Amino acid sequence: MRTSVLQYGITPFCSPEIDLRLKPDPETISTELLPILKSVLPRSSILSRRAAKKPYETDGLTAIRQMPGIVVLPETQKQLKGVLSACRATNTPLVLRGAGTGLSGGARPLEEGVLLVMSKFNRILEIDQDNCTARVEPGVRNLAISEACAKHGLYYAPDPSSQIACSIGGNIAENAGGVHCLKYGLTVHNVIGLKILTIDGDQLELGGKAFDSPGFDLLALFCGSEGMLGVVTEITVRLLPIPSVKRLLLGAFSDIERAGDSVGGIISAGIIPAGLEMMDKLAVQAAEEFVHAGYPLDAAAILLCELDGSAEDVEAESAEVRQLMQHHGAYEIRESKDEIERELMWKGRKSAFPAVGRIQPDYYCMDGTIPRSALGRVLGVIGALSEKYNLQVANVFHAGDGNLHPLILYNASIDGQLQAAEEMGGKILEYCVAVGGTITGEHGVGIEKLDQMCVQFSSEELTQFFSLKKAFDSESLMNPGKAIPTLNRCSELGGMHVHEGVLPFPELDRF
Hints:
seven-stranded antiparallel β-sheet, 33% helix, alpha+beta, Uridine Diphospho-n-acetylenolpyruvylglucosamine Reductase, domain 2, Alpha-Beta Plaits, Uridine Diphospho-n-acetylenolpyruvylglucosamine Reductase, domain 3
């Protein structure tokens, strides 16, 4: 994509010596707010002028931009409470932001609001070897957790493609996964404790190191809440022992549906790989030219299957997976010979998103999740939509758990292509719902998938979502307008809710 710096969530550094920070742009924030913020934050933690705010106008969904009214970067709990109090006192909406790598517009700021950036809360507070846990602040990078505890033989399992840059707080907001989520789960399965500050200034503590904790289990509620319920200030995560042996198998297929059948064959055999990923020909070619991972360029699809555990288990499962891939039509199978080759093969997969920028200057990344049995059918629909809209699609996805990431390629400088990509992406997500899936597996809803929420959920369900939000944020100041569509919006779209598998666009029934 054109804005590659923002795509990876690397915010350009703004020097504290810039003199234009505290004179706000006119008519963007209330006159009462700035004096209060200046009383609770140091000068370097308030960005008010356009030049200083420019890096924060978008998250990873760079097609949608909005200049924030004001940006604040608190460093302490006291400062954070002061910001929340200021927003509550002036009735100013608040949007949370971590590293800015999200792909659904969840961190898109508001022109009349505060953008609360948590990047300065970046300390690893404790690594507990005995309990295999770590306590960290929300601004800590995902990969930094594993780097810090590697000397103890431990690591943090969820590994999104952006793990070198994304923050653990952002992972919680979107319930991020990664290439190893099939065996080790999403963020919600690896976070065991949270400390949360509500907009009213209340401190909540959920879960902890113990196996169970008193009261209602609200951890899952906050994992994926997209900054709508409270500010996460501290996280306790589960750490796992680094497996003694890891082996990655690459299967090359001349037919993408046969590759999909291979996924089902591996899982039904009782094998749970650490990772099971698929890439189609376009994605393979782009990644190979970008990373030189040794991928076969003539393959219609490749399947990456990682096995880990004891040497004996990995050896036995590798032989079985090889047989299963061959049975389902793999014409070439490779095994990583050492750790260097294994990491290089994974690097190709994790670099697939930026790699497609070599084909088109822009792409729209979708995030639907489907039953594995519907994989071939949904890929057929994606191919038909690609032809209909005359837009290329590179398919990269977590095949083992049915989490699809079709990358719709377009050129924003050509009139109508962005709109066509958005419309096509919406149809893909609606079809995912129709076959029994969901509109998001790990990227969240944000502002990108609001219309498709009307497809997946009934008005009664959406009403319950709003009731839940009101319990934590009665004035709807935290990330308003995100994740949950209004009932009026759904009504204007014509009551799109899918009932009992009825397709929202019957012209695709043949698939």
